[in-house]
TrEMBL record:
It is found in: Cell projection, Ruffle membrane; Cytoplasm; Membrane. It comes from Nocardioides hankookensis. SUPFAM superfamilies: Thioesterase/thiol ester dehydrase-isomerase (SSF54637). PANTHER family: ACYL-COENZYME A THIOESTERASE THEM4. This is Acyl-coenzyme A thioesterase THEM4. The lineage of its organism: Bacteria, Bacillati, Actinomycetota, Actinomycetes, Propionibacteriales.
Amino acid sequence: MSEFGGFIQDEVANDELDRIEAAYGPLAAAVRELVDATIRSTVPPEEAALALAEVEAVVKRLRAQQMPGPAGVRFNSEGRAWNWGNAVVGLRNAIAPPLEIVHVRSGLAHANVDLGAAYEGPPGLVHGGATALLLDHIMGETAAAAFTRVTFTGTLTMVYRRGTPLGPLRLDARIDREEGRKVWVVASIGDEEGPTVEAEGIFIIPRWAT
Ligand SMILES: CCCCCCCCCC(=O)SCCNC(=O)CCNC(=O)[C@H](O)C(C)(C)COP(=O)(O)OP(=O)(O)OC[C@H]1O[C@@H](n2cnc3c(N)ncnc32)[C@H](O)[C@@H]1OP(=O)(O)O
């Protein structure tokens, strides 16, 4: 394995990646269900205590073999890249919705997502930090121009127009303009009635990546 600016070259073959994803993708989806069930369960405390013992057994099973740090962003020479731990799109991260981003073309993207009880801030509404998290990510991927370059969030501005209801939502992002190593991206998240949060960000191609 070797590293480039934190990106790790890891020669796992594509068919082995498929096998891992086929097992861990559904596992992460089940853990997402577990998170939602834990928030919304009304079973008596004795039942919750039994569930705790079962969850602890699962954690022990998974801890039997662990990587030393976070999952990182990895790629192989077969042209595959994977970021299983990413907080927004990570296939193996139950905290990630996960957002499935459609890149219409370089610099233009959208996504649909359904946010449940785990993303609540004000009653019935999405936490403002959660909308910022999702917007930051789709904007970052959009700035990266179809993954042809590395960009980091420099400045991010959010305008919260009205509360974002939990449930089905849509995100849109596009590159507005560029100047040198700076890329301005505009984006929004909203429901069927239109945008609830509008964002503008300056994404920087870092000096080390040029
Ligand atoms: C797998 C690929 C897809 C992944 C998508 C991921 C989406 C998620 C996006 C993120 O959340 S990234 C994580 C959050 N961001 C960071 O952690 C960034 C931390 N900051 C840095 O790493 C550096 O400060 C940064 C790369 C942003 C800039 O460092 P540089 O040394 O390359 O910048 P430099 O000082 O040379 O400035 C270059 C230009 O950018 C401008 N600039 C620098 N920092 C800025 C800033 N923070 N905001 C606005 N503009 C900024 C700076 O004024 C200058 O403008 P001019 O060319 O006009 O002079």
